[in-house]
Design brief:
Layout: H1 3-14, H2 29-38, H3 45-64, E1 70-74, H4 82-93, E2 98-102, H5 105-118, E3 127-131, H6 134-144, E4 150-154, H7 164-178, E5 183-189, H8 194-201, H9 207-222, E6 235-242, E7 247-254, E8 258-260, E9 265-267, E10 271-279, H10 283-292, E11 295-303, E12 307-314, H11 315-331, H12 347-362, H13 370-374, H14 402-420, H15 427-459, H16 475-478, E13 487-491, E14 494-498, E15 517-521, E16 525-528, H17 534-542, H18 554-562, E17 571-574, E18 577-581, E19 586-588, H19 601-610, H20 618-627, E20 640-647, H21 662-665, E21 672-678, E22 693-696, E23 704-705, E24 709-711
Parallel strand pairs: 1-2, 1-4, 2-3, 4-5, 20-23
Antiparallel strand pairs: 5-12, 6-7, 7-10, 8-9, 11-12, 13-16, 14-15, 16-24, 17-18, 18-19, 20-21, 21-22
Helix pairs in contact: 2-9, 3-4, 7-10, 11-15, 12-14, 12-15
Length: about 725
């Protein structure tokens, strides 16, 4: 910031009713050194929280960054935390390149040493350091790397120095500066206990106080007042937790006042100057910022109540990325006309469907083509009677050829991009079409898994060469149940809030995720620490679980018996040996014995009756999330959707979404049940606690696990 501009900015702030100075004045060379001291304070939890977040999630974050991207860090400082991310990028993508931008030459020199020491194999020419403010630095990066895909990284919850409105404007300006093909990786500190926040910004050693006073001294120097004229000895440092704006505010109190006669300004005795604030966030406020920045929240890591990292992608680019992922899936499918799941259309339908749906929502249906209509809606027939199904277009006598379908998708995508380029497509609509396509990508993975299973069974090549396979006769004696599937973790009764706050145009969730439903778990219950494993379920099979009709509902037993289903849908029984299939692997059961078993709700409930237990309810799932502070219940959220015994119905006060009215309402039919959490096939952008998946109880193909529960009082 040039001297004249600095002076003008300081004076403008001091003339406001609540006097303030620009926070950027804190971060000169001396200020950056003091801030480095702050990051090592015990009270200042942010540094360690971010360090631990990267330690736990760096590989997953790296996998979400577009391969070959240039990582550009704003305000890189000494780049200590960034080293773990670069190591992860190097491991996942084979190489990494880095640009650090900072105003401090000292910090940049330290950053180079740290990266050289902490990122083995990172070549000197892969490190570029720029001494500049953010936007001048970004302009230089864009000039030097005009064709590169950039991942702009801003760590340390530094975005908290901006109001939520200014953060939106900042992200828009970043995208404008570097182009819409970028990604934004942003760390944000979450709103938490006020005492914790106060201690973090008012440490007992007075380091933060020294930092804030240094910024105030800088500001006065900018407008022509030397340190001797500032009367700094009378200043006091004050921290206030603003619960309305959810931020920590740091002030200098001029206890004796100060006359700034050169500028006809007066700081009254006892008047406070706002030097810096640190905004804290909630999940909803993060979504709001993403939406208002015209970005899609593509990835989310960390603890919702402590510290998080999110990957934002400009809306049109997020849509293009989504298409790329769909294309990659279909490139691996040799026969698009095959239909590995009878209750679904052949593969090719879904390639056309996700595109037709997006066109309908973005362009509109006024000039719908014949293929637009054919692909407009999929099907979810009644499992027990497939002749009953919600409304959908009739199945054509002949599906279009693969070539014709690719031409249709190419033309339609161009039409969609042309419409989005007009800037009139809301981020809400973009979220709807992207999440819709992401959901279909997961269900395609279920189909591909069934294809893999069928190919495996047809080939039967090399089965006899596998070592130490256990014969079916000796199977029962070799299998022992895991005691962790017994319900042993006590969860107390209590109030539960299901769903999220009423959604509006700034925050996207599906209509069935809200509004908030205040309910309760009326009785304490026991829940298993672990989900039922493949080994556990095999014990159930070998002890006649599928042939004991007393364990099953009448209609479930009839369905499974009549169709000859005697094991989970992802399993094969080949020459007396069980094999378990995934999207990209087929393994003997002993190789995956401890992994969760994926089954239908009907199979899960039969197992639980065998164990004298039951499947949890939706409100119990939420109660576990609320109460299990020590993490005794393992893998509840991930590793597979978690079945509940709760019918899929709306919460009180439900309003169907105007943009996609049939999304939920067609399935409030008493036949669908709620699943919570996510599977490994669920896109990272959709892994939120409020999401409610739903399937029929006999549907076998979902990557869905379960665990045993038992009521304490009954």
């Amino acid at each position: 910031m040039a001297a004249d501009r600095k002076s003008e900015t300081v004076l403008k702030g001091l003339r406001k009713q609540q006097k303030e100075i620009p926070f950027s004045l804190l971060y000169d060379m001396k200020g950056s050194q003091i801030y480095e001291e702050i990051t090592h304070l015990e009270e200042y939890y942010l540094f360690n929280a971010e360090f631990e977040l990267f330690k736990e999630n760096a590989l997953d974050i790296a996998d979400s960054i577009i391969p070959g991207s240039l990582l550009v860090e704003l305000g890189c400082g000494t780049a200590l935390k960034t080293a773990s991310l670069l190591n992860a990028i190097k491991e996942v993508h084979g190489r990494c390149r880095y640009v650090g931008i900072d105003v401090s030459e000292v910090a940049l020199n330290e950053a180079r040493r740290n990266l050289t020491d902490l990122v083995p194999g990172l070549k000197p020419n892969a490190i570029e350091l720029i001494q500049a403010d953010f936007f001048k630095g970004l302009q230089q990066v864009k000039r030097s790397h005009p064709l590169e895909t950039l991942c702009i990284t801003w760590l340390g919850s530094s975005v908290g120095n901006l109001s939520k409105e200014d953060a939106v404007e900042f992200f828009k300006n970043v995208v404008s500066a570097v182009g819409s093909t970028c990604q934004l990786l942003i760390c944000m500190d979450m709103w938490k206990n006020p005492e914790t926040l106060y201690s973090a910004y008012h440490d007992q050693h007075g380091v933060t106080e020294r930092f804030i006073k240094h910024g105030m001294q800088n500001a006065l120097s900018c407008i022509g007042y030397a340190p001797a004229e500032q009367n700094a000895d009378s200043w006091t440092y004050e921290v206030e937790i603003n619960k309305i704006f959810k931020r920590v505010e740091m002030y200098i109190n001029f206890t004796k006042g100060l006359s700034l006669q050169k500028h006809q300004l007066e700081i009254r005795a006892g008047e406070r100057i706002l030097v810096e604030f640190a905004t804290k966030y909630t999940s909803n406020s993060i979504k709001d910022i993403a939406t208002n920045s015209c970005c899609h929240l593509s990835g989310y890591w960390g603890n919702n109540s402590y510290y998080t990292c999110q990957l934002l992608v400009p809306g049109a680019h997020a849509l293009a990325q989504c298409w790329t992922d769909t294309d990659e899936l279909f490139q691996g499918i040799p026969n698009w006309n095959s239909k590995p799941i009878d209750l679904r259309h052949p593969y090719l339908f879904y390639y056309g469907h996700v595109c037709a749906f997006t066109k309908l929502k973005i362009v509109g249906g006024k000039e719908a083509s014949e293929l637009d209509n054919v692909f407009s809606r999929g099907m979810d027939p009644d499992v027990l009677d497939p002749s009953h199904c919600h409304g959908h277009p009739p199945v054509p006598p002949n599906w279009p050829s693969r070539e014709a379908l690719i031409n249709y998708v190419t033309r339609t995508r161009m039409m969609i991009l042309k419409e989005t380029a007009k800037g009139k497509v809301t981020t809400r609509i973009l979220s709807i079409v992207i999440e819709h396509e992401r959901m279909h990508q997961e269900t395609l993975i279920y189909m591909i898994t069934q294809d893999r299973k069928m190919s495996f069974e047809e080939r039967r090549v090399g089965i006899r060469k596998l070592p130490l396979l256990i014969s079916q006769k000796g199977l029962i004696s070799m299998i022992s149940m895991d005691h962790n599937i017994e319900p042993e973790v006590m969860i107390e009764a209590g109030d539960v809030d299901l769903g999220v706050d009423s959604w509006d145009l700034t925050t996207f969730v599906w209509d069935n995720e809200g509004p908030v439903f205040h309910t309760k778990v009326s009785e304490p219950f026991l829940v298993a620490a672990k989900p039922v494993s493949i080994k556990d379920f095999l014990c159930f099979i070998t002890q006649g679980g599928y042939t004991n009709q007393n364990l099953w509902r009448k209609e479930d037993f009839a369905y499974f018996s009549e169709n000859g289903f005697r094991c989970p849908a992802t399993w094969s029984l080949v020459e007396n040996e069980y094999f378990v299939h995934g999207f990209d692997s087929s393994k003997h059961w002993t190789e995956v014995a401890e992994e969760p078993v994926y089954v239908s709700l009907a199979e899960a409930e039969a197992f639980c009756r065998w164990m004298n237990c039951r499947v949890m309810k939706e409100e119990e799932y939420q109660r576990i999330l609320d109460c299990d502070m020590n993490g005794e219940v393992v893998g509840l959220r991930g590793g597979g959707w978690e079945w509940t015994s709760t019918h899929f119905y709306s919460f009180p006060g439900f309003q169907e979404m105007a943009e996609y009215r049939e999304y939920s309402t067609d399935f409030f039919d008493g036949k669908h049940y709620v699943l919570k959490g996510y599977s490994d096939a669920t896109h990272k952008s959709m892994r939120r606690d409020s999401f409610r998946n739903f399937y029929q109880r006999q549907y076998r193909y979902v990557f869905a696990k379960f665990r045993c529960c038992r009521s304490v009082l009954s």
